[in-house]
Amino acid sequence: MITLRANMTHELDVRGLPPPEPFEHIMSALLTIPAGACLYVHIDREPYPLYEVLHNGEYAWQTTALADGSFSICISHGA
């Protein structure tokens, strides 16, 4: 589920989903966010296949490793 914050940040929690569902949900969500917005993703594992797609597209991202072993990623249009 995508949640919209007032500051143009959308949240997507894909923790607990088996591959490739997190990748599919993230890619679908990226198609819905407006330019200038950030998709903030919570995920169980570092998504290396996603990074390759983002790198080849028009996206910028920042990944943060969390203390519980999960990751948070802010993805936005434009690099």
Plain-language structure description:
The protein has helices at 21-30, 48-56, and strands spanning 2-4, 9-13, 38-43, 59-65, 71-77. The chain is globular and about 30 Å long. It contains 2 helices and 5 strands; from the N terminus they run E-E-H-E-H-E-E. Helix content is 24%, strand content 35%. The chain has a single domain (2-77), classed as TusA-like domain (Translation Initiation Factor IF3, 2-Layer Sandwich), CATH 3.30.110.40. 16% of the residues are buried. It has a 5-stranded mixed β-sheet, with helices on one face.
Class computed from helices, strands and strand pairing: alpha+beta
Query: What string gives the helices and strands in order?
Result: EEHEHEE
Q: Give the mean pLDDT.
A: 89
Our Rg estimate from Cα atoms comes to: 12 Å
N/C terminus separation: 25 Å
Number of helices: 2
Pfam family, one: DUF2249
Protein name: DUF2249 domain-containing protein
Strand and helix map with partners:
Elements: E1 2-4, E2 9-13, H1 21-30, E3 38-43, H2 48-56, E4 59-65, E5 71-77
Task: Pick out its properties.
79 residues, alpha+beta, Translation Initiation Factor IF3, 5 strands, globular
Give a brief rundown of this model:
InterPro entries: DUF2249, TusA-like_sf. The protein has 79 residues and is an alpha+beta fold.
